[in-house]
Amino acid sequence: MLLFILAYLGGVLTIVSPCILPVLPFVFARADRPFLTSGLPMLIGMAATFAAVATLAAVAGGWAVAANEYGRFLALALLALFGIALLFPAVAERVTQPLVALGGRLSEQADAQTGNIVPSLLLGVATGLLWAPCAGPVLGLILTGAALNGANVETTVLLFAYAAGAATSLALALLVGGRVFAAMKRSLGAGEWVRRGLGALVLVAVVAIALGVDTNYLTNLSLTQTSAIEQGLIDRLRGQDKTAMAPAGGAMQANPSMMMKGAAPQEDALALPVEGTLPPLDGAVEWLNSAPLSAEALRGKVVLVDFWTYSCINCLRAIPYVRAWAEKYKDDGLVVIGVHTPEFAFEKRPANVKKALGDLKIDYPVAIDNNYAIWRAFNNMYWPAHYFIDAQGHIRHHHFGEGEYDKSEQVIRQLLREAGKTVAAQGLADVEGTGAQAAPDMENIKSPETYLGYDRAENFMSPGGFTRDGSHDYVAGRLKLNDWSLSGTWTVDPEHAALDKAGGAIRYRFHARDLHLVLGPAMDGRPVRFKVTIDGAAPGTDHGVDIDAGGVGTVSEQRLYQLVRQQGAVKERTFEIEFLDPGVQAFAFTFG
C-alpha cells in the first residue's frame, strides 16, 4: 500500500516540475468549462492513456515505443487543430471546413449544456500520448520494476497512481484557473482575447513537444527541483515498510542530489535506526576471494554489502571508495562483501567477473549472484546499493547510487565504535578514481543511459526502426540531442545489437564530458577493431582511456569502454564509432 501512496505523491510533485509545462496549455484551455464534464474527463483520459502507454513501453520493447511514436504524431496534429480552432476559428472554418468542424466540437461542445464528455476524453487521450514526465527516483522505481518483473496489474496500477497524482495537482490548478478566467471575462470583457491567448499557448506547447523540449531541456532542469524531494519520500516511507519500498534502478544514471560529495564528516553520532536484519547470503552460484559467508558467521563484525555489476558505470565510480574502506578498516573489524548481480547476460560468466576483480584490484569477498537470490533477500533494486550492518546483524543504514561517501564512511566508523572497536585511523579515506572510475561531471550530463537492445531502446532514429532478431541493413538517421542510429548490417535482439558485416557504425548525439559504451567482441572471441570520430574528426585530446588520439581502439573483452572524455568546455557533440571487423556486440551507452 505504501508503494501506491509513494507513486501517487510522486505524481503530485510533478506540478512543481518544469516537465509539466508543455501540457499545461491543453489543460487550461478547458478552464472556462464545467469541471465535471470537461476538465475531469480530460484528466482521466490523460492519466489512463499515460498508464497504458508507459506499461507497454516498460515491458513490451521496441514495437510499443514505435507504435507510441505514431500515436504522438496523431496527438500533435489533433492538439494543433485544437489550438488553431481556439486562435482563428473563422479562418480555420473557411480553409478546412470538415477539420474545423471537428476542432469546433472539441473546443466548444464539451460544456454543461450538452453534457458530452467524449471530446474532453479525446483531448485527454491525446495529452496522455504526449506527456513525458521527468523520470525522477519515484517514476524510475516504477519503470525499472516493470522492466525487471514484466507486465502485471501492479505495474499498471502504480503508473495510474502516479498519473492520478499529477492529475490531482492539475485538477486543483484547473479549478483555480477557471475562477481566474471567469473573473477576467467579467471584469475585462476579454473572453475572445483569453480564448486566442490560450490557442497561442496550445500551439507553442505543440511545437515545444515536437522539438523535444519536454524530454531534453525540461527534464534536466527538473532534476534539480524534484529529485531530492522524491528521494526523501522514498527513504521516509521505506523506513516504515522496507519490503514495500525498495527503490528501483538499473545501472542507474544517478541524480545530482546523490552525486554531491559532502564536507568532512563530524564525529558526532548519527541517528542510525534499525532498518531490518541481515538476511541469509544463500543462493550465490560461486564465492570469489573467500569461502561462502553466512549471516550467522558474520555476527560480531560490522559488514558493508555492496550490490554492483562490472559494466555499470555508477558501480565502477563507487568501487574506489568501497575498496579504500575495506583496506582502511579491515583491522578494526569491517567486512566488505561485494554482491555481483548481473544486468547483462555476459556478466553472469564467472570468468568475466574474476577478470574484473583483477582489473579493479578487488580482494574482498564477492558473491556471484546470478540468480538474484541475495538481491531478492535484501529486496534491493539499485546498482550500486550499499547496506551497512552492525555487529548484532541489524541493517542500520543504506545508500543507493553514487555519492554521500563521507557520510557512508562516518557510518562505518560509528558502527565500529558501537562494536567496541578503537578506530585508529582518522579522517576520510583518500580516494581519487581514474579513467572510467573518475567522478562524473554531473552539471554537464544531459544525456541518459541508452540501451541498444530493442527491449529497452529509446530515441532510435534509423529509418524504419528496428527489425527484431533478424539481420537488417540500417541507414543512419538525422539526430537531435540524445538520438542515436545504426548504419550497416546488424542483428538487434532484446539485449544488444550485433554487427553482421564489417563497416557498420553507431552514431549518438550527446552532451556530457564522458561517453562510455558497453561492448563485447565477436561470439567466438575474435577481437574487433574500431575507430571513433567526434563531429566527424579524430577525437585528439578528447579521447577516452580505451582509444588513442586518432580514435583507434579494439574490443577484446565484454566490458564498459570509455571512448570520450572532453578536456575543454563540454558541449553537444556527435559521436560515431565504426567497426572495421564484424561480430561486435553493443549493449548500452552511459555518460559521466
From TrEMBL:
Alphabetical list of SUPFAM superfamilies matching this protein: Thioredoxin-like
Q: Name one GO molecular function term.
A: oxidoreductase activity
Tell me the CDD domains matching this sequence: TlpA_like_DipZ_like (cd03012)
Positions of the Thioredoxin domain: 265-417
Q: Which UniProt keywords apply?
A: Membrane, Transmembrane, Transmembrane helix
Q: Which residues cross the membrane?
A: 42-66, 73-92, 159-181
Xref: InterPro entries = Redoxin, Thioredoxin-like_sf, Thioredoxin_10, Thioredoxin_domain, Thioredoxin_ResA/DsbE_sf
- Source domain of life is Bacteria
Q: What is this protein called?
A: Putative cytochrome biogenesis protein
| Organism in which the protein naturally occurs | Afipia carboxidovorans (strain ATCC 49405 / DSM 1227 / KCTC 32145 / OM5)
From the broadest rank down, the organism's phylogenetic lineage runs: Bacteria, Pseudomonadati, Pseudomonadota, Alphaproteobacteria, Hyphomicrobiales
